[in-house]
């Protein structure tokens, strides 16, 4: 690995570019550690244009760590609905309660202390510590890893321990200790706007003369990443069972995707089912979960949705929805079933898959 520039000159070039090109983002207008933490968590693995409305809404609802800690998990998840990666919301909620109960409501003021918060990893801790407290630690996210890998010509996979170690060491060597927060923001912005994953803007890059990947025609090959395993396929069949202006919701358990969120009654199969199987075989199985005899006098089968493909990071959900109208629901309801008025469904946090279906049937 050969580098065509000096660390000090590279700092100056990146900082100069940043001052001319930085975006006016809400999180750059405050050094409040709580608000910075919320911004970092919400905007992880989320496009800026999608995440900003959620960020502003979240901070409006929970402006400080005390208000977040005092909220119920359902309230937090409802505001998070549509963002995905719901464990981020649950971890942040748990950490807010920890800060309130064990740290007197004050956020940790250093890198090591921040790492103790549930869900806070090396990048988030470094981003908060450098931006809010001026601690000299490099914040390395996907954008920064890409810039470092191309600039220094790292050919090891950056998502392996060896690659990560090289990137972090070089990022810390390049770090400006006099203003680490500004430096980290500049590096992130450089990767987000200029040194992008596909078709990077090398013609506009002020570092191209020093860039190992550019000078050796390796831009389209660096950074190297080991591909993730193929997502697992799952088949979910949902039943919206309505009666008298009410329907049924079930809260998902803690050991699967969408933990703690609400969904319609569902059966999972090992593969795709035909229309007849969905209607005639699975509906009775769901309705018969009631321990007492249940025999509605009138049941009408409504629209069966077309197959819907919902992509998660490690799973592909193949879903279909069946709308059912019945004259009454089981009484008492099966365990874990909740009878909910249709006009109150928006009070419950649901996976985006369910929410989109409800929108499509005008619920």
Structure notes:
The structure is a single chain. By secondary structure, this protein is α+β, with helices and mostly antiparallel strands. It folds into two domains: 7-215, Hypothetical protein, domain 2 (Endonuclease III, domain 1, Orthogonal Bundle); 232-360, Nucleoside Triphosphate Pyrophosphohydrolase (Alpha-Beta Complex), CATH 3.90.79. It contains 14 helices and eight strands. The model has no long low-confidence stretch (mean pLDDT 90).
**CATH H-tier superfamily of the largest domain:** Hypothetical protein, domain 2
- Report how far apart the termini are: 59 Å
- What's the number of domains? 2
Q: What gyration radius follows from the Cα positions, in whole Å? A: 25 Å
Our count of helices gives 14
What proportion of the residues is helical, as a percent range? 40-55%
- Beta-strand segment tally: 8
Provide a brief overview of the structure.
The chain is α+β, with helices and mostly antiparallel strands. The chain has helices at 7-21, 33-43, 48-61, 65-70, 73-80, 86-102, 111-115, 122-133, 142-152, 161-174, 180-193, 212-215, 275-287, 352-360, and strands at residues 232-242, 246-251, 262-263, 266-269, 299-304, 308-311, 315-326, 337-341.
Secondary-structure blueprint of this entry?
Elements: H1 7-21, H2 33-43, H3 48-61, H4 65-70, H5 73-80, H6 86-102, H7 111-115, H8 122-133, H9 142-152, H10 161-174, H11 180-193, H12 212-215, E1 232-242, E2 246-251, E3 262-263, E4 266-269, H13 275-287, E5 299-304, E6 308-311, E7 315-326, E8 337-341, H14 352-360
Parallel strand pairs: 1-7
Antiparallel strand pairs: 1-4, 2-3, 2-8, 5-7, 6-7
């Amino acid at each position: 690995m050969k580098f065509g520039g000096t660390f000090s000159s590279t700092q100056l070039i990146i900082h100069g570019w940043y001052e001319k090109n930085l975006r006016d983002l809400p999180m750059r207008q405050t050094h409040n550690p709580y608000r910075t933490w919320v911004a970092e968590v919400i905007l992880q693995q989320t496009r800026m244009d999608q995440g900003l409305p959620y960020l502003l809404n979240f901070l409006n609802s929970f402006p400080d760590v005390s208000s977040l800690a005092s909220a119920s998990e359902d309230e937090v998840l409802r505001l998070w609905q549509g963002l995905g990666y719901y464990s981020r919301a649950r971890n942040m909620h748990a950490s807010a309660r920890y800060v309130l109960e064990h740290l007197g409501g004050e956020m940790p003021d250093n890198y090591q202390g921040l790492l103790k918060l549930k869900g806070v990893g090396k990048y988030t801790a470094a981003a908060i510590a450098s931006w809010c407290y001026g601690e000299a630690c490099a914040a390395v996210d996907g954008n920064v890893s890409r810039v470092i890998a191309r600039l220094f010509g790292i050919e090891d996979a950056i998502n392996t321990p060896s690659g990560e170690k090289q990137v972090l060491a070089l990022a810390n060597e390049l770090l400006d200790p006099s203003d680490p927060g500004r430096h980290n923001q500049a590096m992130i912005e450089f990767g987000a706007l200029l040194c992008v994953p596909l078709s990077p803007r090398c013609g506009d890059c002020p570092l191209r003369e020093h860039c190992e990947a550019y000078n050796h025609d390796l831009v389209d090959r660096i950074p190297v990443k080991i591909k993730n395993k193929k997502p697992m396929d799952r088949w979910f069949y949902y039943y919206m069972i309505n009666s008298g202006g009410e329907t049924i919701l079930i809260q998902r358990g803690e050991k699967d995707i969408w933990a703690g969120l609400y969904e319609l009654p569902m059966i999972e199969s090992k593969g795709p089912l035909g229309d007849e199987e969905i209607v005639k075989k699975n509906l009775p199985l769901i309705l018969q979960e009631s321990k007492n005899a249940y025999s509605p006098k009138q049941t009408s089968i409504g629209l069966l949705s077309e197959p819907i493909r919902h992509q998660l990071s490690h799973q592909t959900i193949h879903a279909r929805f069946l709308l059912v109208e019945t004259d009454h629901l089981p009484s008492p309801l099966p365990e874990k079933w909740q009878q909910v008025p249709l006009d109150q469904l928006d009070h419950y946090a649901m996976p985006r898959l369910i929410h989109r279906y409800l929108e499509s049937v005008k619920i």
